[in-house]
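Quick one, probably user error.
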């Protein structure tokens, strides 16, 4: 008996049966010409919309000059982009990666190495928080602690402890002689759009200072303007020692970064970490243009204004469809709707109406539109959400009849 042919693409994704061939601003177009309003932005990646002319120009100009040399040599683009990041954040230094998962790996190693060179090699454990997501590497899934990602991959990588978010007593109880750092997303994305309270984050900073620990922020999803400031920590009165960045920093080009203070990074000397592709000239050219755009006058103000307008519109949506929507979560243009109906069904139904959204934990759908979104496009998106919700209202009424 002949066996079924195994897919040529490893079947680890539950993909929707639609393929996109072109994008323009907040819209993407499928093979059959159908247009979709993209409120997922490639999971918060396409922060400047699809085929942004400035990013295309930056990438094309660099592609015509030089693609790759490796980190055996100076990369001028790394020097320029790191300077831009250092000038506009808490950080003194930057390590460039290709992804958020790699940025997290750098942070894990940096925290452990910091204590090693400080004379405390016994300090290697990192406390993370229930519902977290820190990537799909073996260490990343151990840090996230979610069983659905850990199952079947053997013993969990040692050195990570989870406690509930916003529970200071549980956190204090978890800190021990081997604790090296605390790592947290200021707003959990994949976990269900959970903002951490400023009070809790300030308490984390205080505990780190008292116990000689490093504070790591994962701003892979909430950073680079998505919450209305360059990075979310700026709104919280809390400064981390290490910060993981990706997604929006490349505007669609694979790019990540691990930012740190000079003190936190003191153990990361030559040979302790590396990447063949990380910080390549193509990524640096796009990243530098992306960060330049975010920091231009008016850009972040636009995100705050449109984000506030979107919240108002979504509040009306919830009131209009109380049997479908439970509550609104998030900040800026990182928003989530907790549902009474299955979020997987709602995502699929919204796609049929021409709207792309992303699922999250706790039966939430994420709304992560490009940061260039206009108020007209907000209204268009909310109308499509309302049309989708109306389908569920109608089905419920039919079932009750």
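Nope, works fine. Designed sequence:
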């Amino acid at each position: 008996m002949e066996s079924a042919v195994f897919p040529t693409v490893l079947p680890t994704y539950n993909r929707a049966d639609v393929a996109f061939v072109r994008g323009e601003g907040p819209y993407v177009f499928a093979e059959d010409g159908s247009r979709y309003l993209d409120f997922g932005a490639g999971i918060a990646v396409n922060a400047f919309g699809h085929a942004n002319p400035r990013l295309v120009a930056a990438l094309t100009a660099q592609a015509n000059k030089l693609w790759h040399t490796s980190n055996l040599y100076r990369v001028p683009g790394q020097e320029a982009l790191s300077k831009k990041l250092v000038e506009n954040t808490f950080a003194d230094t930057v390590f460039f990666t290709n992804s958020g998962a790699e940025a997290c790996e750098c942070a894990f190693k940096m925290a452990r190495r910091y204590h090693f060179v400080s004379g405390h090699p016994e300090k290697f454990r990192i406390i993370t928080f229930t519902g977290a997501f820190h990537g799909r590497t073996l260490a990343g899934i151990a840090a996230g602690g979610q069983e659905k990602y850990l199952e079947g991959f053997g013993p969990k990588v040692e050195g990570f402890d989870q406690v509930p978010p916003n529970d200071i007593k549980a956190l204090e109880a978890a800190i021990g002689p081997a604790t090296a750092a605390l790592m947290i997303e200021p707003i959990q994305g994949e976990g269900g759009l959970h903002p951490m309270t400023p009070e809790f984050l300030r308490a984390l900073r205080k505990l780190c200072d008292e116990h000689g620990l490093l504070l790591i922020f994962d701003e892979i999803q909430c950073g680079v303007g998505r919450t209305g400031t360059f990075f979310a920590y700026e709104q919280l009165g809390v400064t981390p020692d290490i910060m993981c960045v990706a997604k929006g920093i490349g505007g669609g080009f694979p790019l990540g970064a691990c930012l740190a203070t000079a003190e936190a990074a003191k153990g990361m000397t030559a040979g302790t970490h590396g990447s063949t592709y990380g910080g390549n000239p193509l990524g640096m050219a796009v990243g530098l243009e992306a960060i330049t755009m975010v920091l231009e006058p008016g850009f972040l103000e636009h995100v705050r204004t449109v984000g506030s307008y979107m919240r108002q519109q979504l509040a009306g949506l919830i009131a209009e469809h109380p049997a479908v929507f439970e509550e609104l979560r998030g900040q800026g243009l990182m928003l989530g709707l907790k549902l009474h109906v299955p979020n997987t069904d709602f995502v699929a139904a919204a796609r049929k109406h021409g709207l792309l959204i992303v699922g999250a934990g706790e039966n939430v759908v994420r709304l992560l539109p490009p940061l260039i979104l206009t108020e007209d496009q907000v209204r268009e998106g909310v109308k499509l959400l309302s049309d989708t919700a109306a389908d569920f209202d109608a089905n419920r009424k039919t079932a009750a009849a």
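The chain has two domains: 53-295, 298-351+359-400.
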